[in-house]
Design goal:
alpha/beta; 247 residues; 37% helix; 5-stranded mixed β-sheet; 6-stranded mixed β-sheet
């Protein structure tokens, strides 16, 4: 059986992502890597992260799920849902635009509509394969012992697969703070673990494991290694203001 490794919320943190893969000695022949979404926004290198994740899914059978930032990226480029553009600017979209246009927008917030138009044009010309990739990603994955999802499972649904897409990508407190029992442990990202238990380390709850270490916020990028049913090992790469250090 392949070793199972789970990472979430890379958010354009290209260097920490690759340092974490090196730290865990990731090898595609021996390992099943599962990525829980949010590859873009906030960090400096969304384009490079997407290039790599797309290649890994294609060539290494990596499993990649969709996160809310990934959905928003596709919505903005495709002109869907007017509110997506506002949220894009509010939640790290400028950094994503910088990574694709190879420009710094510091002090250019007043020009963001003009910059967005240029960004969408570049994406349409050169990177629509990124948009199609994100837009077609699944919302969950499961194996014999675990359910993997970006945000969580709504406990109000008897059949969790019937919950709305928005719950898969956005749910927080109703999932984290309420007990849920569906026979498998749920591994999720989206909510920074420092907001759950005051630490960026992986959080082990009752039937749930939160792994978003908040790397794009200056905390850390986590990896969960699944050793067996209820047996895990954790790894992390610490994000620093002027670079990244392994730990």
């Amino acid at each position: 059986m392949k070793r199972r490794l789970v990472i979430s919320d890379i958010h354009g943190c290209y260097e920490p992502f690759n340092q974490l893969l090196e730290l865990v000695k990731y090898h595609p022949v021996n390992d099943q890597l599962i990525l829980l979404g949010d590859y873009v926004d906030r960090g400096a290198d969304s384009r490079k992260v997407l290039d790599q994740v797309l290649r890994m899914v294609r060539d290494e059978s990596v499993i990649a799920l969709q996160g809310n930032h990934d959905e928003r990226f596709a919505d903005v480029v495709m002109g869907r849902h007017g509110e997506a553009k506002v949220k894009f600017f509010e939640h790290g979209g400028l950094q994503t635009m910088e990574s694709y246009l190879n420009l710094s927008f510091q002090g250019a917030e007043a020009m963001r509509e003009e910059l967005l138009e240029k960004f969408v044009a570049i994406i349409n010309e050169r990177y629509m394969h990124h948009v199609r990739f994100l837009d077609e990603l699944p919302w969950f994955y499961e194996d014999e012992d675990h359910i993997y999802v970006h945000a969580g499972i709504n406990p109000d649904y008897m059949q969790w697969k019937e919950q709305p897409k928005r719950d898969f990508l956005y749910i927080k407190d109703p999932f984290i703070k309420k007990p849920i029992s569906i026979g498998k442990r749920i591994i999720f990202g989206h909510t920074k673990t420092i907001d759950i238990h005051g630490s960026p380390d992986i959080w082990y709850g009752d039937g749930k494991i939160g792994i978003d270490g908040g790397c794009a916020y200056g905390c850390q990028l986590n990896c969960l290694e699944i050793l067996g049913r209820n047996k895990y090992r954790t790894y992390s790469v610490q994000a620093e203001r002027n670079g990244y250090a392994l730990s």
